[in-house]
Design brief:
mainly alpha; two-stranded parallel ribbon; 6 helices; disordered N terminus
Length: 200
């Protein structure tokens, strides 16, 4: 079930709850039941569970592995930026020192080094931009993999549980803690992910 479908379902539930809490108190017990009875195929009550996405991402091994991959990618880019910056700064300092000490015998040789410096700067910018673009693409693919993994597990999980809806906790204002299946889902996700990892 997509997140958008879940949000629509939650909105419908919220509206029903609000309508039952307003107006004459004597009608609160009978109005929802009558409304459900009038809708063909509608269950008398929805069997809903929820998942805490923060806890899921903090404890699902695939999510943790992808987070570490993100940190490595960021570190790689930072190290490359620093290395290129040091290289350019070192060459720029040598050009300046050579110019101040009269080391250039002609203006042409000085201009050649300045052009080299400009090319180094441009090459560094292109290299870092390409590195960032590749990292972004890789991380986007990993995010798709994570989302697909969770969604496919939830579908398989619900085949044996038969819930009407499984929502993310942040899709609503309040859920009864008894409806929380986060731990069960994390356990199942990790069991499946570890099996895949061990088979590689």
């Amino acid at each position: 079930m997509s997140i958008s479908s879940l949000l629509v379902g939650l909105a419908a539930i919220s509206l029903t709850a609000c309508s039952s809490g307003n107006g004459n108190e004597s009608n609160t017990d009978t109005a929802p039941a009558a409304k459900a009875a009038e809708t063909p195929g509608a269950p008398a009550s929805l069997n809903i569970r929820y998942i805490d996405s923060d806890s899921l991402l903090a404890n699902y091994n695939l999510a943790k592995d992808l987070q570490e991959a993100t940190m490595r990618a960021v570190s790689r880019i930072d190290n490359a930026r620093q290395a290129k910056g040091n290289e350019i700064q070192k060459f720029a300092a040598s050009v300046q020192q050579k110019a101040q000490s009269g080391g250039y015998l002609s203006e042409a040789s000085y201009n050649a080094d300045m052009q080299k410096l400009q090319k180094m700067q441009q090459d560094a910018e292109n290299y870092l931009a390409n590195l960032s673009r590749n990292a972004d693409n890789e991380l986007a693919q990993q995010q798709i993999q994570l989302n697909d993994s969770i969604e496919s597990f939830i579908k398989a999980y619900n085949k044996t549980h038969g819930y009407d809806a499984i929502l993310y906790k942040n899709a609503g204002v309040y859920f009864n803690p008894a409806l929380d299946i986060t731990s069960d889902v994390i356990k199942g996700l990790n069991a499946r992910y570890n099996k895949v990892s061990e088979s590689k």
